[in-house]
Amino acid sequence: MPRPRAAHALLLLPLVGIAAWLVVRGRTVRDDPGTVLAALRAAAGPALPAARAAGATARSEPASYTRETLYEYIDGAAEAYLARGFVQCVAATYTFPATAGSLDVTAEVYRFAKAAGADQQMQAERPTDAAPLAGVAGAFADSSTLVATHGGDYLKLTALAAGDDAARAMAGIAAAWRKDRP
Question: CA–CA separation, 168 vs 171, rounded Å?
């Protein structure tokens, strides 16, 4: 039987390299898919629920605003948002069936760099007679306005007419919005 030579040992070297790579790769800790998904959602920016998920018959095309363009949407109040760490906003109008025709609700979601900024903005804009909304954690509503926060996002809903239809419509949007956030 011939003796193994150095050339034979060199042929085994790639196999040893592949085995070592597999061992190192197998010991690498993988990110939790849920954590990755949450990070991707956060990086995507603020979002509003689809019309159907909110119980609406329609939703306008969402408009997006950044630090540089927020004044185009809320000219007089933009400075307060910016001072609290505003990053981005998305706004749309939902249309709901109502007792007297239809009802429009303007929905705005503001993303802040930190949750404290969103909480501070909500407290500054929360109507004085707003009460906690049952079923939606961190939400407060009066007859025509609903405000809520979750993490760095601040939701503000304004019904163009007050009443029971408006309360149901705003609660539907808030519940769908909150459901989309882990």
Answer: 5
Does 1 fall in a domain?
no
Q: How far apart are CA 128 and CA 44, in angstroms?
A: 33
Q: What single-letter DSSP state applies at residue 29?
A: P
Q: Which residues contact 98 (CB under 8 A, 6 or more apart)?
A: 161, 165, 169
Between residues 33 and 77, which one has the greater pLDDT?
77
Domain membership flag for residue 35: no
Helix (H, G, I), strand (E, B) or coil at 122: helix
Residue of 169, 69, 149 whose CA lies nearest to 109: 149
Contact 155, 145 (CB under 8 A): no
pLDDT in tens, 113-162: 999 999 999 999 999 999 999 888 889 999 999 999 999 999 999 999 88
175 belongs to a structural domain: yes
Q: Does a structural domain hold residue 147? A: yes
CA 70 – CA 65 distance, rounded (Å)? 5
**Closest of 65, 63, 60 to residue 78, by C-alpha:** 65
In sequence order, which residues have a C-beta less than 8 Å from that of residue 17 and are 6 or more positions away? none
Range of the domain at 154: 46-179
Spatial distance between the Cα atoms of 70 and 28, rounded to a whole number of angstroms: 43
